[in-house]
Design a protein that fits this description.
Layout lengths: L8 H7 L16 H4 L16 H16 L3 H13 L4 H10 L2 H7 L6 H9 L3 E3 L2 E2 L12 E4 L3 H13 L8 E4 L5 E4 L14 H8 L2
Antiparallel strand pairs: 1-2, 1-3, 3-5, 4-5
């Protein structure tokens, strides 16, 4: 699948907020957004006011970049949220939060979502005792997320846990054990997202 391979700090500057795409670096003075919080480009201070469409688009792009999903994937999540009962925007955010790579990141097993996607794709993570190497796998309440019991897997995750200073969200629990393990206590909802998101703007844009 195609991925953004350029400097990801430009994405934070474009959205005007930290998206925490580079792990622990984002919490240090080396963070590019802290040093240059203007939008990227040759003339960063000559941008006009966003149109109504621009406001809607930037909200959608912010969520896509935050979770590391591309347009086709995002549209599939939105279509599933529309088919589900309840508020479409909240359901959409719940689906994105349930991605296995996001859960691995929120548990502190990885320094960023890109790192979590790599851990999952390389087979370092198990769900309920079975290896799952699909980053977009949607977890369910009661699922146990565990690091594979092998040296390479444990070494990578232990290093991330040592750097991790993020608070654990309410819908997850983590066991401090030689083999790191976490559990999904309940399904996440829109309130569990760690960045401010105006889901109504996304729904209005994607419904057109």
């Amino acid at each position: 699948m195609a991925r953004i391979t350029g400097p990801v700090c430009r994405l934070c500057r474009r959205e005007g907020m930290k998206l925490f795409l580079k792990g622990s670096r984002c919490d240090t003075p080396k963070c590019a957004f802290e040093r240059r919080d203007s939008v990227p480009g040759m003339h960063p201070y000559r941008r006009g006011k966003l149109t109504d469409y621009g406001l809607h688009l930037r909200e959608k792009q912010k969520v896509k970049h935050y979770y590391g999903v591309l347009e086709r994937q995002f549209r599939r999540y939105f279509a599933e949220a529309q088919r589900s009962k309840g508020n479409t925007g909240n359901t959409l955010m719940s689906l994105l939060e349930r991605r296995l790579d996001n859960i691995v990141f929120r548990l502190g097993f990885a320094t960023s979502r890109a790192h979590a996607r790599q851990l999952v794709g390389h087979g370092h993570i198990t769900v309920n005792g079975r290896k799952v190497d699909i980053p977009s796998y949607l977890v369910r309440a009661g699922d146990k997320i565990r690091v594979k019991n092998r040296a390479a897997s444990l070494q990578a995750v232990q290093a991330s846990l040592a750097e991790n200073q993020r608070p654990l969200p309410d819908f997850l629990t983590r066991e401090e054990a030689p083999i790191p393990q976490g559990e999904v206590v309940r399904l996440p909802d829109a309130a569990d997202v760690s960045i401010p998101v105006q889901t109504q703007l996304i729904v209005e844009l994607c419904s057109k």
